[in-house]
Amino acid sequence: MTFPTEKIRSDFPILKRKIGSKALVYLDNAASSQKPKQVIEAMDAFYQSSYANIHRGIYTIAEEATELYENARKSVARFLNAASESEIVFTRGTTEGINLVRFAWGRKNIEEGDEILLTEMEHHSNLVPWQLLAQEKGATLKFIPFDAQGRLQLDRLDSLLTPKTKLAACAFASNTFGTINPVEKIIAAAHAKGIPVLLDAAQAVPHFKIDLQKLDCDFLAFSSHKMLGPTGIGVLYGKKRHLEKMDPFLGGGEMIKKVEWDHATWNDIPWKFEAGTQSIAEAVGLHAAIQYLNHVELDKIFEHDQSLVRYCMERLPEIDGLTMYGPPAHERTGLIAFSIRDIHPHDIAAVLDRNGICVRAGHHCTQPLHRKLGLEATVRASFYLYNTKEEVDLLVDGLKDTVKLFRK
Ligand code: 7TS
Q1: pLDDT of 57 above 90
Q2: Which of 243, 281, 333, 401 has the greatest CB tally within 10 Å of its CB?
Q3: From the CA of 321, how far away is ligand 1's center (Å)?
Q4: Domain 5-30+298-406, what fold?
């Protein structure tokens, strides 16, 4: 069966928009995805009929709101095949999830002289929190390097995992190279030495199936807004035995059991980590997004995204002076970063915008990675389930126009 792109496109109201006289071509999905009407309507219906704060009301709509929020948690647990929904903590997004581990796990477990192993292709969200923790504790950061094709050099792994390593934290898929990293190997090598592993799955969960029972990572963080859901909500998965031993992240309402004047005891997991009023409507929206992804099927979405990136990588060499970064198409998610000789990425993005085409130009929050490539910035096109081959053609046409304009 062919992938039902037209049917899918009809579910996304924004895709009917024009930029000037041009149809919107949205190729910035790695930054954030668009939302189907099923997500927008689920949140709208919640606000119109069941909105109330959760976990405290005895009245009907408060009970409905609580059930919807907790059902969203159950659906995330099923989506990832987590052992229990108590391992699913709602956060504001990937960045907050990683910082939660930094504060609630890292402060307790990282000491002076310890090492944290990262990779050279981390988003700043999985780099800066560890820099801050390392500075606070007197710990050191180590990095698995990447090679000329944007692949991790795993032959270095064993020597980088030392008796001082207390955590390995790694992007499941790179937001700049698109590389799907061999995280299973990293997890196996780290676990053999008793080292827990955190995966930044911001670019993974939206695009391919993850089975936490098979994967066996200790922590995994991602954002709803990159997987058709709303902004303002994300997930931190943590193994029960870690979450139970961790200190709270933020203090306040909801995360407590009993409060005295000078101390308090903590709620059970996952609520111990959910202080204050949560993003309730956003949880409803995330639930609807998961239902949508399940309906289309992630395996098919992955195949579709890869077919687009493969086609794009076949066509991009038609552009004079273009360099692509990262591994072959079959080793990546549906995104490609590139540069064109003597034309600034911002100029490329600005000309494409005149054609209605949205791409990301800049360092994509991976400055050290760009510096290692000797670049300040690249252009990145990233695809998702509603993109088409025709849109790739429009991108290539737009790039040809850009080159003509700048090489007159
Ligand atoms: N980790 C990775 C691998 C990411 O790609 C991003 C966002 C984040 C973490 C942070 O997610 P947030 O939801 O907490 O902001 N990546 C991008 C990007 O590539 N362009 O804009 C945001």
Answers
A1: no
A2: 333
A3: 29
A4: Aspartate Aminotransferase, domain 1 (3.90.1150)
